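Key idea: predict the complex, not the pieces.
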Amino acid sequence: MISLQHYLVVSAALFSLGILGLLTRRNAVHVLMSIELILNAANVNLVAFSRFSAGNLGGQVFAVFVIVVAASEVAVALAIVLTLYRLRRTPNLDEADILKG
Amino acid sequence: MNGEAVVFWVFSIVTVASAAVVVLSRTLIYSAFALLFTFFGVAGLYVLLGADFLAATQLLVYVGGILVLLLFGVMLTHKIYDLDLRTETAQFAPGLIVAVGLFVILSATAVRTRWMDLPRPPAPTTREIGRLFLGQYLLPFEAASVLLLVALMGAAMIVRRRRDA
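Result:
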């Protein structure tokens, strides 16, 4: 029998992989993909709790909001990455140190 | 092992393995295509959890929208003829320690806590979610639509080429 714990552990694995990518990748698009993994992990959690709390659909509603925020986040972040690439000819985040004093 | 368990393990392994490819692959385009399988795996988990509307939304928005946008990002930040789309890592060992520690703590908490266990019998959710959106969650719903509009205009404004520059 698959219980809530199974889903939570899968979600924790997805979240940790996203954190690993977020911390270690230099390419900005790669970091964005890792953020998508983290948001998906949060969504799996929300939907799993919604399923195992006697059919309270609030979790699924919030998962839809997370998807909306993820979509707008990717659009704005890619705009920033493209502008940065046009300016500095690099997609790497640690080379974007224009504001450093 | 019953059918539900088999399907759960198949989708979980697809999800986690492709997520590992996304994070660990050195070639950016491989990561983008592995992300496709991660999104499909998560959509499968949604179906298993009885969230039919969310599974369809996941496929439409993530696979149809966000993944295509990310592929544009991959293509536009590299020269197309530059086949060697490699990306480096920085601080890999500390990042690995943080990620493994986080996974151990999170899964230990998830396994040890006594959660409420009242599974809902699978039923169509779209009608009920629609009611919630236009009733109890009307204000967040409107705020989300304004957010989408602002993000659309902001993204278009940021990438626009300025004439004076």
